[in-house]
């Protein structure tokens, strides 16, 4: 091996970043014109290993800048500054249906980025890299505090930013998989929002009594948040993904307790029995269970359960009565929920009611259901255990990796701007067509 | 829509209607009664502003960009940084800004109009830090434990004020961490072959170019520079040579000699993750003298040398490479009107016996000499002249590079650290303070620029 290759310098800046922060990956002092592979490796909490890599050619100065130079092969191609993270896939030999999700958000995601001679595609474990660096990716900024919340029977976690406050508040809901999913709330707290992640399907009270929570559970969460001395009680928003959208829209329109300054609904629908409790809504979905389809790989497709979008008003949240700005995020290849059809119907309903100035729709071709914070890998399908079904199924979420990853990045950026402008900005409710 | 404007009665009505059923499940909603009043007081008329920093976890030599947003227009604010040293002292810095039509401030582009620094200084909140207590004035900020970060709290205060006034309203805050060690850098204590030192290795397989890292006569073992070198891809060994409990002899004398430094250099050469042909030496203050000695007398061949504010020779360093105590010869000490000593004249070339000067003409590798022109501890400019002349006479001018910084003092260290113009030299038999020199702003500029140039010099001579 050319001696000079030992002097290849790899740097990643910043080496400690937040999960949604971009980094610059730079190679210097390589042999001009040499072929190199840059590879990222991560072992997640459940022990599975993920890798991503790109093939590059050093320029005449012996430099490769991943933000400016194209990858010509690997798990991503073209100029992709963050490709080493969003194109992560399980290493060969891993079991199928994996999805990368961090449970312990108080420690960073650790990624090793290395550079190898030549354009390698496999067998990395047997190769000695020319250089390697360690990178940390954090959900929590320094000073952000995690406070478990059990008041009023809640199973929740509140994340408070540093500083005196008062901070605008955020209620954060995920979907049918249940559990207390904290990472998005932790990241939003790192951006200045007092964010409460809520478990509403597998809450302690449900596990102990066997009974699903009712609407008051969410109102309790709102109250607890609102009355926290460091929360600005009149600036609270709600964000929901998937089934979390159903709850968010219901609360935004019908609750006499919850008064939102803004709502973000990702990959969901307004279709539900409007007078229904959580349990009744779930039963409504189950009733349409025979509309479940299967892909050729036997993955479950649930998007038809709510189609066609009903005309019966008792089966749709009356979004014409919404009084706060609403950001809808839609993946056009969502195979789990009919989010695109729902978004169109919501738009029509609001246009008829005269409040469409409150609505912003972000719609992404070839993005799937799981539109998550950026630079985490796309799962087109994964194994899922929902509260309704006992055994795990392979669920088709949809989306093509490149477009889905772009959608995550774009939607997140716009979502944070939307939340900032509505919760910090103090403007009158308005649409955000400039987003 | 505005909860804050509702009467307490109305709030209680709603609570009764909606909440009591779920409250009764658990018995109480602690703090509710107390909190209601607070809600009315604190909830928002006032739009909270947002203070942000990026990155929030930075290396010591990385710039942090600080912004305040969602303020009012033409609004005076104070940005304040506070942190505790390892000794427990509070250090703080502050600056006055005024928002414009954008209702925001950005420390990367806006100008401070008052406080610890003036003008556009993106990192001013760090290099202008001072002890909060006047009584602890002559402190030097140093991190002994480089494995943990400095935690700095940055806050946004209403109006143009100073933290010591204590009256101001805190509008927002953000916490940042500043690290000496990048993730994956390994810290290894070295106590072998009689060497007392700490080795820092970058992450990755290596082999790495390396540095031998030498400090001054203050003694002890300083790890901060080596930790940063490793974070930038260079293995680095910092060695103690006096004033350390693991070294032989009394603390105020260097009881180790040439063989000690040769062993240290060889430790690097022999290390399987170090490229034996790419090792440089860096010295600050008395460390310069040692650096020149290592390059010319002890049978090793460094690839490059970096000398910061130090003498070409010392009356305290004898032929065998051992020192006398610094107290033993005080004739060139200068005391100011407050009894603080400047050692500057000790190292004036005219005050150095010729036989004590290192044989610079025998140097065979590139040498960069860094001068703080306000150095009150060493005669840096004069010594740089001597070295430059010696190399020129030997036909080796091309090896010499000089960086010279007006207003900078003796302690030119990694960037954004506060300038210690004076600090405690010794506590016994009685306290003696020494003058290092330097003024905050030019010293900060010198540290920032010289660090960049040092790393470039190392890249050029150790990696290409």
What would you note in describing this structure?
- The complex is a heterodimer of chains A (435) and B (464).
- Chain A is built from eight helices and 21 strands.
- Chain A is of the alpha/beta class.
- Chain A has two domains: 9-138, Sandwich (Immunoglobulin-like), CATH 2.60.40; 145-424, Alpha/Beta hydrolase fold, catalytic domain (Rossmann fold, 3-Layer(aba) Sandwich), CATH 3.40.50.
- In chain A, helix 5 links the parallel strand 14 and strand 15.
- Chain A is globular.
- Chain B has an eight-stranded mixed sheet, sandwiched between helices. Chain B has a six-stranded mixed sheet with strand order 2-9-8-4-5-7. In chain B, strands 1-3-6 form a three-stranded antiparallel sheet, with no helix packed on it.
- Chain B is 22% helix and 26% strand.
- With 464 residues, chain B is an alpha/beta fold.
- Chain B contains eight helices and 21 strands.
- Classes of the chains: A alpha/beta (435), B alpha/beta (464).
- Chains A and B meet through strand 1, strand 2, strand 8, strand 9 and helix 4 of A and helix 1, helix 2, strand 1, strand 2 and strand 8 of B.
- Chain B: GO terms for molecular function: fatty acyl-CoA hydrolase activity.
- Chain B: It comes from Maylandia zebra (zebra mbuna).
- Chain B: The active site is at residues 285, 375, 410.
User: What is the CA-based Rg of chain A, rounded?
Assistant: 23 Å
- The number of helical runs of chain B is 8
Q: How many DSSP H or I helices of chain A? A: 8
Low-confidence runs of chain B: 1-45
Distance between the termini of chain A: 51 Å
Lateral arrangement of strands in the main beta sheet of chain A: 10-11-13-12-14-15-18-19
CATH superfamily of the largest domain in chain A: Alpha/Beta hydrolase fold, catalytic domain
Mean pLDDT of chain B: 89
Say how many strands of chain B there are: 21
Q: Which H/E pattern describes the elements of chain B?
A: HHEEEEEEHEEEEEEHEHEHEEEEHEEEH
What is the CATH architecture annotation of the largest domain in chain A? Answer: 3-Layer(aba) Sandwich
Provide the number of structural domains of chain A. 2
- The CATH superfamily name of the largest domain in chain B is Alpha/Beta hydrolase fold, catalytic domain
Mean pLDDT of chain A: 94
Shape of chain B: globular
